[in-house]
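note to self — DONT lose this again. spent like an hour looking for the file last time. sequence + predicted structure for the chain T wanted, 378 res
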Amino acid sequence: MTKPTKGKTSSRRNFLKVAAAGAAATVAAPNIASAQGPTSMRWQSTWPAKDIFHEYALDYAKKVNDMTGGDLKIEVLPAGAVVPAFGLLDAVSKGTLDGGHGVLVYHYGKQNALALWGSGPGYAMDANMLLAWHKYGGGKELLEKLYASIGANVVSFPYGPMPTQPLGWFKKPVTKAEDLQGVKFRTVGISIDVFTGLGAAVNALPGGEIVSAMDRGLLDAAEFNNATSDRILGFADVSKVCMLQSYHQNAEQFEIMFNKDKYNALPDKIKAIIAVATEAAGQDMAWKAIDRYSKDYEELQTKDKVKFYKTPDSILQKQLDIYDQVVEKKSADNPLFKEIVASQMAFAKRATQWEQDTVVNRRMAYNHYFGPNAKKKT
């Protein structure tokens, strides 16, 4: 047998040293990661602690915390704990907060095209269909482009489809568009422009400030969102008339927002969990909304003696006409606005035709089982 040369022996020893060092590093790596501990994030919602919307934010955080096994721990504070509700985008972008829960419409003052994620008729789409456009129709890429255009250092996840929101709470039933002339009214987003076009004097206030403003006479009327939120916030204490159905916020959804630097520093496994948790939380929220909103809708009538009225078709048509004028003007001033509208309309034309042709109108079935002429069912 040929003896190895001195040079070969030395090389072999060096190889073994390197291999041993690599093996040691591999064994030590988990201990190093473990020593670093879980990642903690401090968030804020744009909602008062008592609102069901803040509950949705807590639900989302719990899903992420549980799914990551505690490797990511999100703490969610209510509106105003760190910054005002409308200050969330700046706070997350700057890193004052690690993330937040709100709606894109609240950033309307930064870039009016952000309101296209929920403020308006949705081109006949509901909120779930608008989320379908966001995921599969190009909306995600357009939103990233939009945030980049204003230098927002955030990662955004729209989720949680909302049902059509009421026209609002009034002193008396609204029977025609002229009834809105001069009314001091609260709304947000593009709806500001729509209600201004209807003749209202609009004031955009966060949810937690609306009822007190109505109580003090600073507002004559207002809209917020749904039977549960409106009941919790105390709308029935300042008004007994609510007009149902409207196109001003027909297809809105919530937004989960991360500071981009904090998000990018997360392991890919955690990012994947965040994506799945967001979709799971959105569906769970939709189910919870059906349960809770329907209960509070019933109790607003039976316990709080609120009268609900359907918004007249003439007002709904007027909303659409004014919305088109607003969109035309903003599209002329803002190329990104125009690009997003074109993308939404292309998706909506296809998706809503499929829906209108395919999905049966459930009014007949409702009347059959629960209407005034329905036979008692066993």
